[in-house]
Amino acid sequence: MNGDIVHDNVLDDLEFVPRKVGEYREVLGIGDYGVAFQTESISPALKSSVDVFGGTVNGLLDHVASVLKFAQTIAKEDGEEALTDDEQSALIGRLEKSVALLERSDPDAVPDDEDAGNLEAIISSFDRPALLVRNGGILLDDPQAIRWRDTLERNMGQIKRTIGSVGRINLNGQQVGTGYVIAPGLIMTNVHVAVFLAEKATHDAIVRHGESGFRRNRAWAVKPGVSIDFKEGDGMQGRLQFRVKEPFFIGPLAVPELMDTTIPDRIKIARYKQSMNLSNMDMAIFEVETTNADGRSLPPALSLSSQESLLVEGKDLFVVGYPGRTVIQPTDAEADKKNMDLLRYFNGKFGVKRLSPGQIVSLPGSNIDDKGNWVVSHDSSTLGGNSGSCVVPLNENEDQVLALHFGGGWYRSNFSIALPKVRNILKAVRAHWV
Predict the structure, then answer these.
(1) Distance, first Cα to last Cα, the chain
(2) What is the H or E stretch that residue 94 is in?
(3) Contact 358, 391 (CB under 8 A)
(4) DSSP 105
(5) Which of 252, 298, 338, 384 counts the highest number of beta carbons within 10 A?
(6) What is the longest distance spanned by two Cα atoms in the chain?
(7) 341 vs 199: CA distance, rounded Å
(8) pLDDT in tens, 185-213
């Protein structure tokens, strides 16, 4: 490893480090911080928490109860199994135990992973929610939308125009990631999604120029059973599934063996985790059918941003994708399973379309490993299924995809490729740049 490399592995940045009790008190506006709100100027995040919780533990728990009740109502409406009253009471008790730490513990104490996970889930439930998409929009009556409700409602036209062009990428019906339409017959996703969708071509590998003049790599062919489905969730009405035809562009691979079909997926996952770093362009483009078997047309392409002026720290944005555990993720982390369970209680089913508001945290070039000067980080809530999601400025007048999400996790760091920084690489793609 080079001496100037600080983070040689993106997953180093994804490690969850619990905050101290005093930090949780501050973020949640509990105790002295809630009282201070009455007289002192405080951060927007703290103000929003005090507005929601009233600066009290009871207010915080009331919010949690309303979130759980809403999630269970949605589960019943969708014909899914909801929690029983006893299960809800047990969950509330589990959360109350974690919240009690805020009143009695030393401010410098660090909660264990379970308590920290519970507190992070509560923070996420109002500050960085993952809101359900329904009927081409989002459910603004969701208690988790409370902080963002006015902003989301004001920009609902932009949100609706974006949502319909984002789909779930499946392999034989199982979710692998997310993708979105960038041009007629083209979708964008991540390389680490692509390597599980493609295999070595049976014909001689050649490189030729397509109609656009863009170099297409014919060394790889899409596996049977790969599709992108633009439905909001399982059981939703309508047939919006389209066959993924072939790779159009696959970014440089740090580990070429990822495309070797003789290597088991679990080995690929391990090698990918070892090689994933901010220097790689984790971007892939696939050709898809423009009319599916049901005669439906591919959703319209989203405009891509060439405006570096939109890359501003603290800028509001939203991510649209299908958060959840995918077939390419390891499943042996017990702590992660607990957090996934907690998110399920708060949010309902995984693998369905969601919108996650957030903000830009750092700009291209901020991380020493960002050798391509194209990585922008954000703090929206994401999970593995969000790989390949679009990152869009939350502004009706900025109707364009600003970045491609490629890594991160719930209450962890999130990384994306800033499209204005890679336009020259993609200049021959038949996309609408603004």
Answers:
(1) 39
(2) helix 85-104
(3) no
(4) S
(5) 384
(6) 72
(7) 34
(8) 999 999 888 878 887 665 443 333 333 33
